[in-house]
Amino acid sequence: MTKDETVEVVEETTDETPAEETPAADVAEEAPVATKPAASNGEAAEGTKLFVGGISWGTTDEGLRQAFEAFGTVTSADVIREKMTGRSKGFGFVVMGSAAEAQAAIDKMNGQSLDGRQITVNVARPKTENNDRPRRDFNRY
Description:
The chain is α+β, with helices and mostly antiparallel strands. It folds into 2 domains: 1-31, no CATH class; 49-123, Alpha-Beta Plaits. The protein has helices spanning 3-30, 61-68, 99-109; strands at 49-53, 74-81, 88-96, 113-114, 117-118, 120-123. A hairpin with a 6-residue loop joins strand 2 (74-81) and strand 3 (88-96).
């Protein structure tokens, strides 16, 4: 194979790539719009994601959602569970429709009782990496 033949193959490949990507782009435009508040990185808008700590092991996602719906639109409500057992870790996250609704929920729900336990409600902070401690890995293989 000569240099000229190699260049032709590369040019043919690059000519086909845009044609293949065009249908995928059309599908993405037709996809339903998510109800999550808009943010530049696809996460919840600043100040709308709440950390809810101290929840009962019996609290469900739906129960958490219902508790916060009185303060505005709840985009999502998730109780965090252990991967192996499925049991609640005792905390969760609620994403509210706006920062004002989130602040109202913090003001009214922080320190209140939910399913028999006093809960803590704060604006969620990004998870930080602790590089001082090695990560535990329980995989044996």
